[in-house]
Amino acid sequence: MAAKKKASKKPAKKKSARKPSAAFMKPMQISAALAPVIGAGPYPRTEVTKKLWAYIKRNGLQDTKNRRNINADDKLKEVFGGKKQVSMFEMTKLVSKHLK
Q: What DSSP designation does 63 have?
């Protein structure tokens, strides 16, 4: 029988806390079309996404068959450029047009 060698374990490196990118944390101006959905006032991009998802979940706008799609109500239709349904990935592209 061959003797098994134990691999010497190195001490685990301490993970440094991730720092968010300054570009994502910069407050952005919200357009008039997006303000009724998430509220007026400058928000960082991360906060815009959180508030948008909270609105979608609160109003049950996520498609039941394909959860990656968002069904727009009257307020979101204006943000989505008149589209009735968009994918999650398309949504971020469309919403970025409403941030300055």
A: -
- E strands, the chain, where? 69-71, 85-87
CA distance 85 to 16: 40
Strand, coil or helix: 46: helix
Predicted local distance difference test score (pLDDT) of residue 71: 97
CB 28 within 8 A of CB 99: yes
CB of 95 within 8 A of CB of 30?
no
**What distance in Å separates the CA atoms of residue 10 and residue 42, rounded to the nearest whole number?**
47
Is 5 domain-assigned? no
Answer whether 0.70 is exceeded by the pTM: yes
Instruction: Tell me, yes or no, whether 75 lies in a domain.
Output: yes
Instruction: Kindly report the CATH number assigned to the domain that includes residue 43.
Output: 1.10.245.10
